[in-house]
């Protein structure tokens, strides 16, 4: 066994299958999308080279610009609402002495539920006639207060954001909670001796020490919200009136319904570049460094 581990061929044998799969399912599709973005093609007839026309067309397309704005709306909501909520809940759970494992499991349950199930579940809750939300509103308020949550352009995106938050914050809570509980007790005890406790301890001790985990959460949030697809596709399919359209749903409609594969590829390439740029900017702004206890 030791001889095998010292042999470089052993490591190559394990690495090559992974590299092949990575190249086949990631590198190749990205390269092909870049190439198709320079062509006008319906997937059947001969491709016609049109240069950068697909990419310049994007910035004149009102639907694409609206979908791009919706992606940024998605990201802003997640950064401003979800991340602080995750941190708050994690702090509260970390302070609990009894049943902590129960609370950790409870908040993580939505994460293991498929997005399709979550979308259907919230679709039922948002139903105007029989949905639990409107039924509760009718019990405590006039019937006129009930809303068409997924059919109202002013409420549809917010309704999706709430459903998405309910499903995903559990993962971030467990991640953040693990970092909080990993802080050495000696540091916490020393801060209490110095008279630091309560929320002061949270801001001055806990928050700086879990900074690397918060950075990971920010990266995952930015990349995830820029490529969000499934929950929007199932709940509203981009409607009503493109009020919930995001780049991924618009890419599918353009590429596979309108059969403009070249233009759809240009949208996909634009998404890819935006994610790279945003994550790069985030890395520069946060200046992520490993925390030494």
TrEMBL record:
Gene3D superfamilies cross-referenced by the UniProt entry: MetI-like (1.10.3720.10)
Keyword tags: Cell membrane, Membrane, Transmembrane, Transmembrane helix, Transport
Listed Pfam families: BPD_transp_1 (PF00528)
Topology class, membrane: Multi-pass membrane protein
Subcellular location: Cell membrane
Segment forming the signal sequence: none
All copies of domain ABC transmembrane type-1, residue ranges: 68-282
Positions of transmembrane segments: 12-39, 72-93, 105-126, 155-181, 202-222, 261-282
GO biological process: transmembrane transport
CDD domains registered for this protein in UniProt: TM_PBP2
UniProt GO cellular component terms: plasma membrane
Similarity field: Belongs to the binding-protein-dependent transport system permease family.
Protein name: Raffinose/stachyose/melibiose transport system permease protein
